[in-house]
Each structure stands twice: as structure tokens, then as C-alpha cells.
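Known limitations

C-alpha cells in this collection are predictions and should be treated as such. Users comparing against experimental data should check residue numbering before alignment. To illustrate the layout, the record for EAL domain-containing protein is reproduced below. The input appears on top and the generated C-alpha cells appear beneath it.
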Amino acid sequence: MYQMINCLTSQHDWQLVALAIGVCFLATITTVGLFRRAQASEGRSRLAWLSLDAISAGFGIWATHFIAMLAFKPPFPIGYGLTLTMLSLGVAALITGIGQYLVLQAGSRPATIASGGLIGAGVAAMHYLGMGAMEVPAHLSWSYPLVLLSLALGICLAAAAFYVAAYRLNWMGSVVAILSFTFAIVGTHFTAMAAVTFAYDPTISIDNTDLVPASLSLVIAVAVILFLGLCLIFALSDWRTRERLRQQKGQLDTALENMSQGLCMFDSEGRVLLFNEKYVEITSIPADTLRHSTLIDILSEQKTGAKIEDPEGFASRIISAARKREPLNTLVEHHNGRIIRAVTGPMKDGGWVATLEDITDWQKAQEKIFHMARHDALTNLPNRVLFREHLEAALTRVNRNECAAILCLDLDRFKSVNDTLGHLVGDDLLNEVARRLVGCLREGDMVARVGGDEFAIVQSGKDLHASDVAALAGRIVEVVSAPYEIQGNQIVIGTSIGISFAPEDGTVAEKLLRNADLAMYRAKADGRGTYRFFEPGMDAKAQARRLLELELRGALARQEFELYYQPIQDLESGEIIEMEALIRWKHPLRGFVAPMDFIPVAEETGLITQIGDWVLARACKDAAAWSRPLSVAVNMSPVQFKSQALLRSVEAALSTSELPAARLELEITEAVLMDESDATLGMLHQLRNLGVRISMDDFGTGYSSLGYLRSFPFDKIKIDRSFIRDLTSRADAMAIVRAVTGLGRSLGIPTTAEGVETAEQVNLLRREGCTQVQGFHFSEPRPASEVEYMLSGRNLRIVS
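Generated C-alpha cells:
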């Protein structure tokens, strides 16, 4: 210890010693800073930073050593060999570079310590090479304990410095690393200087030295300039990096705080790293508390009010998904009724990013629309869609030795009540009938409103017998026939019921419904107010339909069909933008036969394919001849979609007429998509690829569904005329129209209101954002020969 103190106090210039320590401190600051840059980089960028760091550290250590050597003032001249002097510089840069590379590659703490020790060994090697470059007129003797101490100081302190630098990434870690490495360099040098004793020998000549102190000063000056240049480069790079990071952080903060979702980032242990204000709002956890929270804290029911029975298990699922690099999507319900969608995405370090979104209002809106699409707007009973689902489920169970019964009900004398007392009384009567029907059912039975005054019931079960169904039908006849008091009016109606039984009368929904319908008509024919089971002999109506079928087969050949057109107007501009083609059958004896009478027959017999082809060809031909390039809408039957010939028919109609595909619009009902078969969806996409537009017709009547709007990107939604009719008198009709037009706006789909008959309806539809209108208020359907007459605006009410 005395030898070290004596060496420093009597043989060194303290001003140059202070300069050496200052250069050393600056060098270690640069070395640790560049090491941090290398830590944050990968690949070639990391190698570039390590190379720069190795050069910087080498020059810094080398300059520190030789400035300290200039501070050494022995009583004799000193010279330096150029080769070893330069070699010492190279060794310092090479070994510190290799050591830092190994520190970054180390997979364990002992390996990190060993790599840091290598850097300390490089410092010592540089010093002793520099000592070896000294040429002095003296003999050197060494104190080996001090030599070993100098080596230990360099290796241990450098190992500590880079261990801290590798595992403590905060500012305090950087400070400790800088101070430790500074002491490693300075301690190695001055301990080693104290370990050597110079015995002056005037007989030794140093006249041919390569470097004398003056020339060494020049070399050191150049080295320091280069070193300071590297420091400047580092400082500029660091400043630019920090500025870029500051800007990026500002942009990130702005993005985070303007997100509609709550965002929180977690480390691999489930600790919160960062979050935005929306996350605080959704979780109801104060920001100060959230900063010190873990995932378990956030999931805790005491803090968030979330209905999570097993927070630890839920947290384990999230952490497991993050470690497997898998996303996780789940819904969390709060005690206050709010519904939160939580989505987690994994990060490379095992942590994850979680986003929270309050979807309560969206969920309720979706559920409301979904409910409306599957329930009758007036009675809130299931509509045809839900009835069909329930029936199909019951028939599936029939295949497992259960029985099922279908009861089709038609109200007797309801039409006269509607005509004499008005629709409002009729609506109230329907609601009361629905309430009474529900009261007659067992648990598991379903009643649906399937038409104006038509209802249907499904019963099923293993112990279901015809006597049970008969008892229910008798009870319904009795209950429905009991007097009603509606708006001060005493009303008496009845009901006729037809029953089909599965599996005896069939196991296919369509057949069972048809058989129940036949039985219902027999009940009406037998005096009404009663019920009948289906019997194979109930074919009178079927005979009449067969006669109609025979006449229908020849109608096309005899050219008895013709097309009428009804204009569709843009509600904003008032211009006619489209014509809907409506088929009419002019029978030579019966006169005009309503489409509702012959279209079902055509669908059942398959004639609809030929008739549909004719309608397509004729409508395209007529449209191509119009003076204005209007679109033409053609109704399509579900039967047509079961044939691959439909695509060829559309292509042929467009090709023959030379009508642009974009001017043809095909209207389909939910029945087309009811089975959601790949063939049906494939046909729709092929038609779309031709350029033809597809619209959803009769939306809201039970033949449309939000689910089907998701199955295929429709070009238009047509609101059924039943809702338009009640628009001015019923709040629920207005609510449905508002919901559908809102749905159209959300999906970017135009909405067309059918059956518009009054100016008041037009004004309400305009207010609700409906885009197109059609109905008798503007024009009734007219023959093709009168289209140009309609386009001229004569006898046509124009929306303005």
C-alpha cells in the first residue's frame, strides 16, 4: 500500500493524472452508452454498434494509459517502441469488442460474469503491453503480489460493470456500470505502476527509440481526437435516437389516448407496463393503483366487479396463451350489466397486449335486431324463421323415436272484424289471440305467427299421442272462440285447425306443413270452428292445384304471361332509378290469375325454372330498349337456386339483350338462404361475379334474418310492405323501419320501402333515412308498353 501511495505522490504529475482519469471516465460513459445501443439492436445493427463500441473503448483505455504514462515523472528519460504501442491499442479494441459480444450472447449469469472478466483481462493486457513498449535507461523489477492485484482489480471490476450493464437496464445500472469500469481501468493502471521499480543504469542507451514523450503526445492527441470524434458521433446518434423515440412516444401516447378501446401492456409475469385512460375508465381502477397492479389484481372482482368465478384460472389461461404466442378473445360481463370484449395479443418477450372494449350497446342492438328478424313485430311470437328452426329440431328428434305434431291455425271471421272495426282493433285482437294460445301450451311447445291471421304450433315428445294433440286442439278452439272485449267492442271469432303427425304423415317439414294446411281447409269446409287430422283422402285442393298445374304448363307456350313494371324512386332526388318486373298470367277463361295462386304451384312442379327463364329474358330485353339506363329488378324463387342452370340463364338473358349486368338486380327472400348450403352461396357469388346485383326482399316478415345478411354481402334491403302499411299507426312498425334503415346505413346498403301509399309514409321514411321507395303512392304496376309513359312523369307522383 505504501509503495502505491509513494508512486502516485512522488512520481506523477497530478494534473495529467486528473486528465487521464477524466478521459477514462468519458471513455466508459461512451462504452456503456454504445453497449446499451447494441443491447437494443439485433443482427447487423448490433454488430455495427459493437464495432463502434470496441474502437471507442480501445482508444479510451489506450489514451488513459498513455496520458497517465505522460504523468509519470521518473529521474531519467523515457521512450516507447512504436510496434508494441500500436499493438496495445489493437489488443484493447479487439478484446473489449469480443468480450462485449460474449456478454450479449451469454445465456446465463456465470457466462456474463466470465465475459465481463475477459474485458478486464483485455484492459490488463493493454496496460502491460504498453509497459512493455517503454524504453528506459533502467532495470525493471516487479512486485508480483501487486501485479496479481492489478489483474484482479481489472477482471473483477470489469466483470461487475458488464454484469450490471447486462441485467440492470435502468439509469442506476448505467451509473454503476460506468463507475465500475472506470475503476477497473484506472485501478489496473496505477496498481500496475506501483508494482514496478525502476533502477537507473546510465550505461543503457535509448537513443533509437521510436517514440519520445513529445511524439507520444502527438500520437495521444490524435488518438484523443479520434476518440472524441467517436464520442461526438455517439452523442449525435444518441440525440437523434432519443428525439426519434420522443416523437414516437408522443405519437404512441396520442394514439393510445384517442383509442376507443382500453389498452394495457403486461410483462411475462403479468405486471402492468403501460395503459391508456380508456383502460382506467373501463376497469374503474385508479391510474395510481393500476401502475402497481398485476393481472390478478385487475381480474379481481373486488376491484372490477367482473363476473369471473376463478380469476387465477382466467389469468393462467391468458399467460399460457401469451407464452404459446396465441391470441385470446373472450367476453366478460360486469355486475352492472356491461359487457366487455377482452382481446389479448402475445409479445416476443412472453408478455402481451390486452385491449378492452365496451360492447354493451352494440350487443344489445345486435340482439334486438336478431330478435326482430326472428319474431313477429306485432305479437312478439316467433316468426317463420324461428318456427322453422324449432320444427327442424323436432323432426330431428323424430328420427330418434320421438313424435311431433304440427297444428296450423287460421282465424275464422277475422277479416270481417278487420274490415269493419279497423286495423287497430284487428291488431289488438291478434295480440289477445296470441296471449291465449301461449296459455294453452305445455312447456317445450312453440306457437308462431306465420301470416296475417295464421298461426302454427309444434308439439314433440316421446309420449306424444294423437289424443294429446286432439286435446290441445279442442282446448284452443274453445279458448279462441270465447268472446273478446277490444276497445269497447264485443268480438267473437273462431279458429279452424289442421293437424299433421310425424312420422305417420311425413318427416319432412314442407310435407307436414302442406298436410296440416290440407287438414285445416277440410276443417273450414266442415263448418269452421273445429279441428281435423290429415287424412290421405284430403286431396280436393290438391286436385284443383293439379288442374292449375296442367293449365300452367301450357301457359308459357300459349304466351299467356306478360310483365308489368312498377317504378322505384330515389327518395332524395325523386328520380325513377329502377323498375321491378312483376309477372302476370292472363288466363283465357279465369282472367288474370294472381301470382300468389300460381307461383307456389310453379315452384312445387319445377315449372318456375322455365317461367323464371322467360321472365329474366323478357325483363332484360325490355330494359335494354328503355330510353333511360334504368336497372330492372326480377324476383327469384328459391327453387331456381337449386339448379345450376340459373347461372346460364342469367348469362344468356344478358348476352341476348346486351343489357349491362350492373343494370340487372335479382331479388331473393330468406327462403333461398334457409339451408345456407354451399351450393346456394356459391351460386350467389357466381352471379355477383357476373356483375349482377343481389337484394334481400321481404326483410322483417320472417323470411329474412340478420344472420343471412352476414352470409352474403347484399346490395339492397327491401322493407316489407306490412311494416310500411302500419308505419303511421304503430310504434313497433316505426321501430322496425328505423332499425332496418339504421342497419342499412351501418352496412352501407341501400334500403327500399315497398307498398308506400301515402305522403305521410313518404315523409316518415325520408326522416328515417330510407333511400328508395316503391308503391301505389307513385304508380301501380303497368304493362311494359307504358314504361316510357311512366318515365315521362305523366300520371306519376314524383317525390320531392
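For this record: The chain is about 55% helix and 15% strand. The domain at 261-358 is CATH 3.30.450.20 (Beta-Lactamase). Please report discrepancies through the issue tracker.
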